[in-house]
Amino acid sequence: MAQAGRMSAAEHNHHWARQKERGSFLLMRFTVAAARLLGRRPLVPLLYLIVLYFYIFGRSARTSIHQYQHNLANWGARPDLRPSRRSVLRQFLAFADSLLDKLDVWNGRLPLQELQLVDPGNLRDTLHGGSRGRLLVGAHLGNLEVCRALAELGERVRMNVLVHTKHAERFNRLLGESGASHLRLIQVSELDPAIMLQLAERLERGEWLAIAGDRVPLHGGRNVTVDFLGQPAAFPQGPWLLAGLLQCPVGLMHCLKIDGRYQVRLEHFADAVSWKRSERDQVVHGWAQRYAQRLGEHCLDAPQQWFNFYPFWKRDDDIPA
Q1: What residues are paired with 117 via a beta bridge?
Q2: What is the percent of the chain where pLDDT is above 70?
Q3: Which of 116, 150, 125 is nearest to 136 (CA)?
Q4: Which of 6, 116, 177, 188 has its CA 20 to 30 A from that of 14?
Q5: Residue 111's closest CA among 141, 140, 142, 153?
Q6: Three-state secondary structure readout of 34-100
Q7: How far apart (Å, rounded) are the C-alpha atoms in residues 260 and 114?
Q8: Where are the alpha helices (DSSP H) in 107-181?
Q9: What is the rounded end-to-end Cα distance, in angstroms, of the chain?
């Protein structure tokens, strides 16, 4: 039986979006400008020092990554992935590396030749011939910003990234300033009729919609509890409700760094998500569970590129910080 609902007051207070922000839009803008002027190398020691600071003083983040590595090792029967202080630190440093890659993406310094497109279902071919767009579900695994590169893979596909931040327009200006003309952020805190009409129109124009499937939004946060890496975890209903309402095909998208080179992975996931009113919760739960299973398999391919630094599962007292 599906376990769905809105967040309790306690969950709301510990939600990832409620955690203290340690940056600002102006700081991000300064960082992008510095990367453009100075290049990547001068920023490396500074960024690694900042991430090291978060590792030393971020007990909650350390515990969360330790728990993720613990769950992944057990679920995947991979004893080599069992957590240690060193492995947790390496995951923090991998996050620093991904931030530097984001700056390269924003500043056009990640050549397409350095990307490998893995597309066994030939989703890229649907860009031709006036085909209707599709919904792509990603995760905070790897580097989602590399989807800009997907938007620039010769066909100039319009990629609309659906986000829960109220600062979407500011980020759009930042992306525009850095040259990301084919990538747009759209705020979707609530799926009101105006937003649904806009999204439907974009699909009809052949544009693609991208949404993260691994974070429950702070407002309108309907979620469903599924098994993820062998433990119950809350996943958002939003991607599957959206797919059902828009009646569009669904694909999965991940951008993983394998052997120093990014793989943009596209795969077909569903022709359509449909339900009868009495079956909606069960159908949504089923798709969320299939997604959680596939996400876990991708985590095994890039185990230290999971960048959710907050309590994704309920804490276990026996897991050390």
Answers
A1: 264
A2: 70
A3: 150
A4: 188
A5: 153
A6: HHHHHCCHHHHHHHHHHHHHHHHHCHHHHHHHHHHHHHHHHHCCCHHHCCCHHHHHHHHHHHHHHHH
A7: 9
A8: 147-151, 168-177
A9: 34
Structure pTM? 0.83
Pairing of strands 159-163, 183-187: parallel
Structure tokens belonging to residue 221: 């946060």
Give per-residue pLDDT as tens, 121-179: 888 777 655 678 899 999 999 987 776 666 655 555 677 877 765 544 454 455 555 44
Q: Which of 137, 110, 96, 116 is nearest to 269 (CA)?
A: 137
Q: Is the dihedral of CA 28, 32, 37, 38 positive or negative?
A: positive
SS3 string, 130-151, reads CCCCCEEEECCEECHHHHHHHH
Residue type, 304: Q
Residue whose entry in the numeric block shows the structure tokens 């799926």: 191
Q: Kindly report, residue by residue over 10-51, the tens digit of the pLDDT.
A: 444 444 344 443 444 555 566 666 666 777 778 788 778 888
